[in-house]
Specification:
With 54 residues, this protein is of the alpha+beta class. The chain has one domain (1-45): Ribosomal Protein L24e, Chain: T, CATH 2.30.170. It is built from one helix and two strands. It has one helix at residues 31-39; strands at 16-19, 25-28. The chain has a two-stranded antiparallel sheet with strand order 1-2. Strand 1 (16-19) and strand 2 form a beta hairpin. It is globular. It starts with 15 loop residues before the first strand and ends in a 15-residue tail after the last helix.
């Protein structure tokens, strides 16, 4: 499974799963990715450390 923000592979038994009220499921490899997506609402394509293609 891959992180919904940075697209990094998540090892089994680690990471977090976040489910919105609408039923959309997000997987995060770290609290850094979770905070950047949910709280700060950043676009992963504008960050250098993510693996998202521009």
């Amino acid at each position: 499974m891959k992180c919904s923000f940075c697209k990094k592979e998540i090892p089994p038994g680690t990471g977090k799963m976040y489910i919105t009220k609408t039923g959309k499921i997000y997987y995060f490899c770290s609290s850094k990715c979770e905070k950047n997506m949910l709280k700060l609402k950043r676009n992963p394509t504008k960050l250098k450390w993510t693996k998202v293609k521009k």
